[in-house]
Design a protein that fits this description.
This protein is mainly alpha-helical and 507 residues long. The protein has one domain (3-311, 396-505): Serine Threonine Protein Phosphatase 5, Tetratricopeptide repeat, CATH 1.25.40.390. The protein has helices at 3-17, 21-33, 37-40, 44-61, 70-74, 89-92, 99-126, 138-160, 191-208, 214-217, 225-229, 247-261, 264-281, 289-292, 315-322, 344-349, 406-416, 420-432, 447-458, 465-472, 500-505; strands at residues 172-175, 188-190, 306-311, 333-335, 362-369, 378-385, 400-405, 476-477, 487-488. The chain has a 3-stranded antiparallel sheet with strand order 4-6-5, with no helix packed on it.
């Protein structure tokens, strides 16, 4: 019996949604047991299934940990009191020795390296002497696989590695797993060695993806799954490119990596060339007013601007577990209302920002209690995030979790250029397309703060601000729970220790 018959139903599901848990579970069991490996890689569809399963598995580590939850709490976005019972207190306090933090860290480490191990097997089969993968799909499959391996290692490096500099680049960081079916414990490499390997994988991925259909045909987002699945000339595997590590996302990762390594010249080149091409082709257009302010299905993730994101059909469940009003004091919130002297939101977005589309993703809830806790008396305002609230109507973006967007590229250009007018123009591009009519002149004195403020507003719920702070080794920042508080972060808190399970394995 051909593998196509065996995998037909599974392929259709995973190729469309990328998030079906049965796909990840099936791969995990059968790939590790070695029962189905040869059959799985006997046709193109098997390669697609494995790759889709890896994207699906990313929802287990991103989602509530490396996007909208843990890592953003560590960036001090939300009102998580240092003293109290909030379930995310240990992350806000950087209690790395706490059992719950250790459990989260160990799970993240194990699942990420398991994904990388499956990627390595996939790459190995791509390059097998008599591979079943056709020449048409080889550059896309291997290119995406190399990019995934690079991205997963990069995020582990950014979390567990040192604050990168010429004085720390030789410090031990993490292992780089790039050998398939290796049963040995891989050595822990220096931060520079890891970066060099990430860079090689990304450059190789970029070369392979140079003919990515996104460069000529665009994202090819289509709400009609049946239509795209049955289109044999342009199958689902080559559509919905925002949900895959496409050519442009690889350029964005290269820009991020160069920024991390302090190479602003190369970061600027990557970001500016990317922006030139996507602007010319209108590949990732800015969100429209109608989409951002829709009353029936508001696009609060600004989906058209996302260069790479995950497709997570459980996004609504994640939202309920992190931001829902039903959680009351356990929710991730801003203190204060939408405006006023005690409003964290007003401080976060700055003055003259009431028209900002990004402010529309918050909702104020006022509660009143008397001195004994009964309703009526003192009023308290809390502001709840609606960014990932489940959209009830069917839409392309209702399951999207953004991991990279075009505004980050503009911010990289602004940070890297010595031309203050160019930096100002880059910042204005973002602000104008967020419906802001006033702009602040960029000077040598305020440039860094303006970029930091805009970056924080752009990526809330997307897991990037902590790494931005770490890259800059910032000791002070005001994006926490109380408008009167400036958080002082000890530099050592930026470096998360390796999980105990990993250090135990090396003893």
């Amino acid at each position: 019996m051909k593998i196509k018959n065996l995998l037909k139903n599974l392929l259709i599901i995973t190729a469309i949604s990328f998030t079906t848990s049965s796909c990840a579970d099936w791969l995990k069991v059968d790939m590790e047991d070695g029962i189905m490996e040869d059959k799985l890689y006997s046709e193109n569809e098997g390669f697609f299934t494995v790759l889709n399963g890896i994207y699906s598995s990313m929802n287990e580590t991103y989602g509530s940990t490396l996007s909208m939850g843990v890592i953003d709490v560590m960036a001090q976005y939300y009102n998580v009191p240092a003293n109290g019972t909030h379930p995310y207190k240990v992350y806000a306090n950087y209690d790395y020795q706490d059992d719950s933090f250790e459990s989260t860290s160990s799970s993240l480490w194990e699942k990420t390296y398991k994904m990388i191990a499956n990627i390595n097997v996939l790459i190995d089969h791509c390059d097998a002497p008599e591979t079943a993968l056709s020449s048409r799909y080889y550059p896309i499959v291997k290119g995406e696989a190399l990019a995934l391996r690079a991205m997963l290692h990069f995020d582990l490096l950014r979390l567990y590695g040192p604050i990168y500099s010429s004085s720390t680049e030789s410090s031990q960081a993490i292992p780089y797993l790039d050998i398939p079916n290796n049963k040995d414990i891989m050595p822990i490499l220096s931060a520079k060695e890891v970066c060099d390997k990430i860079l090689k994988d990304l450059k190789d991925a970029s070369d392979l993806l140079k003919d990515d259909p996104i460069r000529t045909e665009g994202v090819q987002a289509d709400d009609s799954d049946e239509q795209s699945t049955n289109n044999q000339e342009n199958p689902t595997f080559l559509r919905n490119r925002q949900y895959r590590l496409n050519y442009y996302a690889v350029q964005g990762l290269l820009a991020r990596l160069y920024m991390w390594m302090g190479n602003k010249t190369e970061a600027y080149n990557c970001a500016s060339q990317l922006l030139d091409e996507i602007t010319l082709n209108q590949t990732f257009p800015w969100v429209t007013r109608a989409a951002a302010t829709s009353t029936s299905a508001p696009d609060r993730v600004f989906s058209t601007e996302v260069m790479f994101g995950l497709y997570n059909t459980s996004r609504g469940t994640l939202f309920d577990g992190l931001f829902s009003q039903s959680l009351e004091g356990d929710a991730l919130t801003f203190v204060g209302g939408l405006s006023g002297d005690d409003s964290k939101l007003a401080q976060f977005y700055g003055t003259n920002s009431s028209s900002d589309y990004r402010r529309k993703m918050w909702e104020e809830v006022v509660t009143s209690t008397d001195s004994e806790g009964e309703e009526g008396g003192v009023s308290t305002s809390i502001t709840y995030s609606l960014k990932y609230e489940q959209v009830t109507t069917d839409s392309y973006f209702k399951s999207m979790i953004p991991l990279m967007r075009i505004s980050e590229m503009y911010l990289i250009v602004a940070e890297c250029t010595d031309d203050l007018q160019e930096a100002q123009d880059a910042l204005h591009q973002i602000r104008w397309n967020r419906n802001l009519t006033t702009d602040e002149e960029v000077t040598a004195d305020n440039k860094e703060q303006l970029i930091t403020d805009e970056f924080a507003r752009e990526v809330i719920g997307e897991g990037q601000l902590f790494f931005y702070y770490k890259r800059h080794a910032m000791e002070e920042f005001a994006s926490g729970t109380d408008v009167t508080t400036t958080y002082k972060m000890l530099l050592s808190n930026y470096v998360v220790p390796l999980p105990k399970s990993e250090t135990d394995n090396r003893q």
